[in-house]
Amino acid sequence: MQDKAIASAAHVNEGTFDGLPYCVVVGASVTRSIPLFAMGAEKGRDEVEQAVVTSARALRQAVGRKAASGLLRGYYGTFKLVRSRRRSGRTAIYGTWVEFAEASDAQAFLRDFPMFSNHNGGIA
Fold first, then answer.
1. pLDDT by residue (tens digit) across 3-27?
2. Domain count, the chain
3. Alpha-carbon distance 116 to 68, whole Å?
């Protein structure tokens, strides 16, 4: 039964980065200094990098077991787990959020898991 939920979540969560309209930040941003010796490699990277994550394990790590279970079972509609990296000078900022297709799905997720409304005040 669990394998079906994971398989269907991978189907819902797959594809290119199209950006669903309602975002909920699910983790505090992490800031890292880029060492001077790594700046040469940074020139080949984009200033902003975003990736849709399709792993059920990564989803559980980002939002917790209960929230991931609800997302995987489709309780909150279509979603994407997105990780990003933004470079500003010698600083890289990493963030993770869940995107929802419908505002009502994002609001239901925040209602059921209010701890995520503390990161950005709700839906972005």
1. 333 333 333 444 444 567 888 888 8
2. 1
3. 13
What's the rounded Cα separation, in Å, for the pair 50 and 100? Answer: 16
20 Cβ partners below 8 Å, 6+ apart? 78, 79, 80, 99, 100, 101
Q: Which residue from 91, 107, 103, 109 is spatially nearest to 29, judged by alpha carbons?
A: 91
What is the residue range of 21's domain? 2-120
Q: Each residue of 73-105: pLDDT tens digit? A: 999 999 999 999 999 888 999 999 999 999 999
For 59, other C-beta atoms within 10 Å of its C-beta total 24
**pTM for the predicted model, two decimal places:** 0.74
